[in-house]
Structure prediction request, 160 residues.
Amino acid sequence: MRITFWQAAFVSSLAIALTFLLPALSVLNLFCCAGVVLGALLGPYLYSAQNRLPLTYAQGLRMGLLAGFMGGLWSLVGMLVLYELGIDLGAEVRRGLEELSQQESPDAAFWERVRQSTSGTRLLIFSGISNLLLGMLFGALGGALGAGFGARYTAPEDEP
Prediction:
């Protein structure tokens, strides 16, 4: 079964979005966005393996960039849907900031500004934009790495 460039990028984008949305997979992103890199690596690898054609690093980079962009958009849409369903992914962040603000601090005005800026909608918008940018940056890296890993595949020999 052969897959197209766009299908491989789509599969990669879903993997990237899952690393942003699922807490168990989000842990991977603590290690220099390893989850995004691995998700983006998936597309060029699948493309090369299924089509028995190697991708150049430029093609892998382009696929990773596209997958990172789409993955960032998927994660933003997913966060909005979850927020509307009453599942607030930013609640833990706000809770941690609230605990920090309860400690003795000389700048109470600073913590008030932090509290206001981490309201649900603002935090959601910030997270979505950062996911989009980080997805593109580390997606491009993962795509180039995926092209390198998929380079061992060559065109199939003519079968009798």
Observations:
- Residues 5-83+132-150 form one domain.
- The longest helix spans residues 120-150.
